Amino acid sequence: MNDERTADAFAQSWNRIGSVYTREQFLEWIAPLTPEDFAGREVLELGFGNGSLLVHAADLNPHRLAGLELGDTREQTLRNLRDAHVELHRGDLTVANLGTFDVVYCIGVLHHLGDPQRGFESVLRHTHPGGRFHCWVYAHEGNAIIRWIVDPIRCITSKLPWWLTKYAIALPLVIPYFFYAKLIARAPSLAQRMPLGKYALWIAREPFRFFHHVAFDQLVTPRTVYLRREEIERWLADPRIEDAYVIFRNGNSWKFGGRRASDR
After folding, report:
1. Span 153-165, pLDDT tens digits
2. DSSP letter string over 182-196?
3. What does pTM read for this prediction?
4. Where in the chain are the domains?
5. Tag placement on the chain: N or C end, fewer CB within 10 Å?
């Protein structure tokens, strides 16, 4: 599938909202990387959306901060970045070559690409020898309900006008899950036994508008894949990678990364 179609669909979403993520969410997403890994370093975000994560990366005082995005979201991104100095590039991350950086991160992008492994190759290609990289993707594990129920709906809604998907479909569909998450939060012992329970505990802290954003984000994209742990481990078995890690996040996604081996 053409990644431009996916980027255009997300641009319809990103261009109509401000910065949606908090500093706390950003720091949790990039862990085990820490603010000290960013400070004074050259940092690249692949697939920056509307800058909702870039703005927090800028607060960590990198020496240089750059972002690459295929969708036409530059104007909204500049509004969200306020006065932060960030190099914004537009292009296809699977073929781009912006040079190498000390830290490269890619959050919530690889699972929407026509070829996720090519996207990961770009992450590695842009990481300087000795540098760190970090990614986050949807997991196959723990997402059975999403794959069986939400994905068939997404195949239809991704072809509809954005406003119809956002207000006539995503909005009413997310209301039951909003109350489900709040229930789980009141009885956290249920999280281990209920579908998407750990994720519900995490998202229950957020306001309804964030639930709506997540639901629309799920339904607007033409393509989503759910990656198994063994596939990620195959990527990380590359001899150019050392100190690799894979972390199961909220029972339905993977954080993974490592260090690009130094040239010898």
Report:
1. 999 999 999 889 9
2. HHHHHSGGGGGTSTT
3. 0.93
4. 3-140+225-260, 159-220
5. C
